[in-house]
Design a protein that fits this description.
Blueprint (H helix, E strand, L loop, with lengths): L9 H17 L7 H13 L22 H11 L2 H12 L9 H15 L13 H8 L13 H22 L3 H7 L2 E2 L2 E2 L20 H14 L6 E9 L9 E5 L2 E4 L5 E3 H8 L3 E6 L2 H25 L5 H25 L17 E11 L3 E7 L1 E3 L5 E3 L3 E3 L3 E3 L29 H9 L3 E11 L6 E8 L19 E6 L2 E5 L1 H5 L4 E8 L1
Parallel strand pairs: 5-9, 6-12
Antiparallel strand pairs: 1-2, 3-4, 3-8, 7-8, 9-18, 10-11, 13-14, 14-15, 14-18, 15-16, 16-17
Length: 521
């Protein structure tokens, strides 16, 4: 090994030393100093961990096959609803083999196929043509296949009613006599479901759990437990202002609520719901309680007239006998009418012709009695002109990402005053304190906006498109009252085959909503 020698020039020595140090550092054999190394380690430990980057999400578009934007936007919105997708899957699982070729079954199968294709993807995917679903739907409504402008709400109602028919048919088909006699053992013309041993104990069979009977019973139990997430219940009350009588509160189911949009430049979704639950006044109401009261007064007058006539008539005359019989009938009617007023004015009154008092003023109100898992709100924008035509209400409806519907629901405490709501709000509106938020969630009244169908254009023409959310990867975490109002979902605008990621603020400010889909949280 040769040894390098340097002249006694200090500059040469400095240059040589610098070259040596640089070489050693390049080989990783020398560090600057222990202190600098520790300082670097401390800075490295103090550095905050970076947030996990959201994976890129892509959505599949749908081809417009001739004014089918109403269908494309509705399907895109339904695809973002987890509870609805699970409901469609359960409906298909209920289909018996004998019903697989029916119109409703074909629609349900094609619907599930399209919804699966519209689920979020991690790579770019080609658009899809929903022609098979259109063909299946056209067997139920020919207007689906026409090239004219159609309505998104009508399509939604058709899909909802079709799935309900699938569930009903599954329930009834399990009791079909042909099914039972085909699969159950028959002894002496009697359908036998089990054999008894000498000890009056049912004999065990290794294949009993997989028998057709067990399968049919399991299927029927599943049919009974299939819950439609779209179905809610509304309560309606009619009350007479004159006598204060309140008719029996009537309940009805709904899969969407049609809300009238106020004729204003700007309004809110809460104002639309307030118009739905407002107390209406009716001027030509015929109150049954008032009719019974008027009839009872007439009967009492007739009884008094008969009694006064009997007081002066000869007891042996034929007319006296007729008047006596009439008075007896009237007293029976009086007893029936008194009983009806005391117990149930809505009861049938055979043989009694009710009087018709002058029409009275009444109030009528409808409120939500049982909120559904998925609240679908249809914003009705039709304006009927004096000329007989229709126009579109262009009002901008301000939306809420989180919607509290507790002011528009019943609480179980029914008011007997005709001028007050059926039930008052249990908690303040939009006051998300820890106590009120827990109460709102307990009553199933808090919803998060998940998708919507928008319409641009005039009343009889235009274009439908959708805004839909894609849930974040951590959306399956347990939701508490602390983090329930936080949301990290991604939003997309989908117009036929075009999909664009947008912000939540742009969705809420769009203003021209038509069908809103809220999921309960």
């Amino acid at each position: 090994m040769s040894t390098l020698s340097f002249p006694g020039n200090p500059r040469s020595l400095f240059v040589a030393a610098s070259v040596g140090v640089a070489s050693l550092m390049a080989l990783g054999l020398l560090s600057l100093s222990a202190g600098s190394s520790n300082s670097s380690d401390k800075q490295r430990t103090k550095r905050k961990p970076s947030r996990r980057r959201k994976p890129k999400v892509y959505l599949r578009g749908l081809y417009n096959l001739g004014n089918t934007c109403f269908m494309n936007s509705t399907l895109q919105s339904l695809a973002s609803l987890d509870a609805f997708n699970a409901y469609v899957e359960r409906c298909i699982a209920l289909l018996p083999d004998s019903d697989r070729n029916s119109v409703d079954a074909a629609i349900a199968v094609q619907l599930k196929h399209v919804l699966d294709l519209l689920s979020p993807q991690l790579s770019r995917v080609a658009a899809y043509s929903p022609r098979s679903l259109i063909n299946s739907l056209s067997h139920k409504g020919r207007w689906i296949a026409s090239r004219n402008e159609q309505d998104a709400q009508e399509l939604f109602q058709m899909l909802s009613s079709t799935l309900q028919s699938v569930v009903r048919n599954a329930e009834t088909s399990l009791f079909d006599s042909g099914f039972l006699t085909q699969h159950l053992p028959i002894e002496n013309g009697i359908v036998s479901t089990s054999q008894q041993s000498d000890g009056n104990e049912p004999m065990k069979n290794d294949s009993q759990s997989s028998s057709p009977l067990a399968a049919s019973q399991s299927s029927f139990a599943s049919a009974r437990t299939v819950e439609n997430p779209l179905l809610g219940m509304a309560a309606s009350r009619t009350a007479c202002v004159r006598c204060g009588y309140i008719e029996a509160i009537r309940h009805s189911t709904f899969d969407n609520l049609s809300l009238t949009v106020p004729r204003a430049h700007t309004t809110s979704i809460e104002e639309c719901l307030a118009m739905y639950t407002v107390i209406d006044r009716l001027d030509d109401f015929k109150c049954r309680h008032c009719s019974i009261v008027a009839t009872l007064a007439r009967v009492k007058r007739d009884i008094a007239k008969c009694d006064s006539e009997l007081a002066v008539q000869d007891k042996a005359s034929k007319r006296t006998k007729r008047v006596t019989a009439t008075a007896a009938t009237l007293r029976e009617q009086q007893h029936v009418l008194d009983n009806a007023l005391a117990n149930n004015p809505e009861a049938d009154l055979p043989g009694i012709q009710l009087a018709s008092p002058p029409p009275s003023v009444s109030t009528r109100q409808t409120m939500i009695a049982r909120p559904p898992k998925i609240l679908v709100l249809h914003l009705s924008r039709s304006i009927y002109l004096p000329t007989g035509g229709t126009a579109k209400n262009p009002a901008c409806v301000q939306l809420q990402h989180f919607l509290d519907i507790s002011p528009f629901t019943t609480t179980g405490h029914i008011s007997t005053n005709a001028s007050t709501p059926i039930s008052g709000p249990a908690v303040p509106v939009n006051k998300y304190s820890a106590e009120s938020l827990a109460e709102i969630r307990r009553r199933n009244c808090l919803y998060r906006l998940s998708a919507m169908v928008f319409h641009s254009g005039a009343h009889d023409s235009g274009h439908f498109y959708a805004y839909r959310s894609v849930k974040a990867a951590n959306s399956d975490d347990v939701q508490t009252d602390v983090n329930i109002l936080t949301d990290s979902d991604q939003w997309f605008m989908v117009s036929d085959i075009r999909t664009v990621e947008v912000s939540l603020e742009s969705v809420l400010d769009a203003g021209n909503g038509y069908l809103l889909f809220y999921e309960r949280v």
